């Protein structure tokens, strides 16, 4: 890694002001905890002229439970707060588990919810030093014209590897985006597109302000599991968040979110077919098949892509079995 490049730092006092600064300077980047962005700057992956620092912005961190049972979390809430606050642990245990599984305690004390959802995609050919990438003629995502993972193709397959998105997808979360003059809500899944080089639909002048998690249905069972090379301080090779309601042994609703396998966090399609059934070997086989069909890991990590596909399916089956067993 190199020293940080030169930049101007601005600390706005409102989110709208932050968005206006982003709008005014094409080379500007938002920085919150900096735990994803700063290593990337030190690798020379980006050279923004202006950093807009929202880490000290009043009212940006924190959360509140609303009367209807839904929960609002500020984009500036740290992963440490999400992982350890008893109110979140009681209401959204899977989210607390996911936050606790991200990075290391020191990262989590600075890393934010907004930064976790908006973090860059990752690839072994991309998260490297300048000289390493230069010696490989760079790649399609930045500076080059070939994808070393899929050289015949014309798109980037870098993987989205955030821990919180799969749980929030399974819980049906929405995000609020603040521009200089207005704000809008959208379903979390619509924040992403399937392109490793441009995986966010977020406008250049928008800031992720808040996340809304709808009121969990009564008796919701939820959980999070991730597989990684090291058992600490490591991104998921494959990860799964599940939210399920089981009544008298039958599945009433089932939502599954995946991370680490595709260029965007994936909300598994087709789980409606499993509603009304018992969680038995046949259901788990069908669920595993849905995951294996929709997860599309590429050779963007140190492990083979088919291994990650199988791990994603197995993690999902195991977690659902555990949740069904109570
Ligand atoms: C050694 C190491 C291990 C890690 N392990 C994990 C891991 O296991 N799991 C995991 O999920 N992450 C991991 N990370 C990545 C990182 O720590 C997390 O993703 C963290 O939550 C990022 O949050 P941040 O506030 O630090 O983001 P920043 O670095 O400040 O920002 C990240 C990106 O999001 C944008 N951004 C930040 N906030 C907002 C917002 N409110 N609205 C719009 N855009 C925004 C920034 O412009 C930037 O592009 C790891 C990082 C390191 C260095
Ligand atoms: S998937 Fe291809 S284009 Fe994308 S970062 Fe990796 S090598 Fe580069």
TrEMBL record:
<keyword id="KW-0285">Flavoprotein</keyword>
<dbReference type="Pfam" id="PF00941">
    <property type="entry name" value="FAD_binding_5"/>
</dbReference>
<dbReference type="InterPro" id="IPR017608">
    <property type="entry name" value="4hydrxbenzoyl-CoA_Rdtase_bsu"/>
</dbReference>
<dbReference type="InterPro" id="IPR016169">
    <property type="entry name" value="FAD-bd_PCMH_sub2"/>
</dbReference>
<dbReference type="GO" id="GO:0071949">
    <property type="term" value="F:FAD binding"/>
</dbReference>
<keyword id="KW-0560">Oxidoreductase</keyword>
<dbReference type="InterPro" id="IPR051312">
    <property type="entry name" value="Diverse_Substr_Oxidored"/>
</dbReference>
<dbReference type="InterPro" id="IPR036318">
    <property type="entry name" value="FAD-bd_PCMH-like_sf"/>
</dbReference>
<feature type="domain" description="FAD-binding PCMH-type">
    <location>
        <begin position="1"/>
        <end position="218"/>
    </location>
</feature>
<dbReference type="InterPro" id="IPR005107">
    <property type="entry name" value="CO_DH_flav_C"/>
</dbReference>
<dbReference type="InterPro" id="IPR016167">
    <property type="entry name" value="FAD-bd_PCMH_sub1"/>
</dbReference>
<dbReference type="InterPro" id="IPR036683">
    <property type="entry name" value="CO_DH_flav_C_dom_sf"/>
</dbReference>
<dbReference type="Pfam" id="PF03450">
    <property type="entry name" value="CO_deh_flav_C"/>
</dbReference>
<protein>
    <submittedName>
        <fullName>4-hydroxybenzoyl-CoA reductase subunit beta</fullName>
        <ecNumber>1.3.7.9</ecNumber>
    </submittedName>
</protein>
<dbReference type="InterPro" id="IPR016166">
    <property type="entry name" value="FAD-bd_PCMH"/>
</dbReference>
<dbReference type="InterPro" id="IPR002346">
    <property type="entry name" value="Mopterin_DH_FAD-bd"/>
</dbReference>
<keyword id="KW-0274">FAD</keyword>
<dbReference type="GO" id="GO:0016491">
    <property type="term" value="F:oxidoreductase activity"/>
</dbReference>
């Amino acid at each position: 890694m190199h020293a940080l490049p030169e930049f101007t730092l601005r600390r706005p006092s409102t989110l709208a002001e932050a968005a206006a600064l982003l709008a005014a300077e094409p080379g500007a980047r938002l920085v919150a905890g900096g735990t994803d962005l700063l290593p990337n700057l030190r690798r020379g992956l980006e050279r923004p002229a202006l950093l807009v620092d929202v880490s000290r912005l009043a009212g940006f961190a924190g959360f509140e439970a609303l009367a209807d049972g839904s929960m609002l979390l500020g984009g500036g809430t740290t992963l440490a707060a999400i992982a350890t606050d008893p109110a979140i642990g009681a209401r959204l245990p899977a989210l607390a588990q996911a936050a606790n599984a991200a990075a290391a305690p020191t990262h989590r004390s600075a890393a934010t919810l907004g930064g976790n959802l908006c973090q860059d995609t990752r690839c072994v050919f991309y998260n490297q030093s300048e000289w390493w990438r230069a010696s490989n003629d760079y790649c399609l995502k930045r500076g080059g014209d070939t994808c070393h993972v899929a050289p015949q193709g014309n798109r980037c397959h870098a993987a989205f590897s955030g821990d919180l998105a799969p749980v929030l997808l399974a819980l049906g979360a929405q995000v609020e985006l603040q521009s200089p003059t207005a704000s809008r809500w959208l379903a979390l899944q619509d924040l992403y597109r399937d392109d490793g080089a441009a995986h966010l639909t977020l406008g250049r002048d928008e800031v992720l302000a808040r996340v809304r998690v709808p009121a969990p249905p009564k008796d919701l069972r939820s959980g999070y599991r991730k597989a990684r090379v090291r058992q600490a301080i490591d991104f998921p090779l494959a990860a799964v968040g599940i939210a399920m309601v089981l009544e008298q042994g039958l599945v009433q609703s089932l939502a599954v979110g995946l991370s680490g396998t595709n260029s965007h966090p994936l909300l598994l399609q087709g789980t409606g077919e499993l509603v009304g059934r018992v969680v038995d070997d046949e259901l788990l086989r069908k669920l595993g098949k849905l995951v294996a069909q929709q997860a599309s890991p590429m050779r963007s990590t140190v492990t083979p892509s088919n291994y990650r596909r199988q791990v994603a399916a197995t993690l999902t089956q195991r977690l659902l079995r555990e949740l069904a067993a109570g």
